[in-house]
Amino acid sequence: MGRHPKYLQPEDVPEEYRDLLDYDSQRLLVRYGKSALYINAKCADCDKKRILQVYSVRKKLKVGKFTGFCKKCMVGEKGSYYKKGWWQGNKGYIFRSIGAYKEYEDIIKPMAPKGGVIMEHRAIMAIHLGRSLDSRELVRHLNGNKTDNRIENLAVGTHADNSKDHHDTYLELLALRKDYEFVAEKVAIINEELGGVEKLLGETRDHVSGINGELKWIRYVIIGTFLAAITDLLLGFLSG
């Protein structure tokens, strides 16, 4: 039997967000091919009704990232995602509300006609150039770091330039992989040779040990022979 779902309780939620959730509405739903516990909620700003996954709500509450706003309100002046005014998208780029660039509204607004959200690196480049960017103009990060939006790290290019950057990066990674494989092969050869040397040293130690044993036996024979000769001389002298 599967585990019983852990329902969200009012006492689990900070007081400022408590009234935004309908705790009696919690139920199991199959979405995206998976069964999970969901709860009805309303936006703290526009009262829009939505369905949230209880696990996601718990996780965001735990790390202080639950805002109570819907997506539309989160990027507005009142919401400002995570109450910071910016957030990082799934592909690593930094996004901001166009409200952050009020003094450059004539440049920024034509670049963000939907929802009032814009990628920070595009906004910085447009402000630097003093004009709006065409949708075909891409802003590239020269060092590959998508969060490094310093103007000296940005350059305007085309899709072809972007593809070339990705291709060059791929070639660099391929070269590094070949270097790694070459080094790994050499290390394997060295390890094999060291194993052969260790085996030879072991055989040498055994051989030396055998020689020492033979020398010890020869020493005993010589001493025995010498003692026997002395004994014969003494006996001859005494009997004479």
UniProtKB/TrEMBL annotation:
The chain crosses the membrane at residues 217-238. Pfam families: HNH_3 (PF13392). The keyword Transmembrane applies. Signal peptide: none annotated. SUPFAM superfamilies: His-Me finger endonucleases (SSF54060). InterPro entries: His-Me_finger_sf, HNH_nuc. This is HNH nuclease domain-containing protein. It comes from marine sediment metagenome.
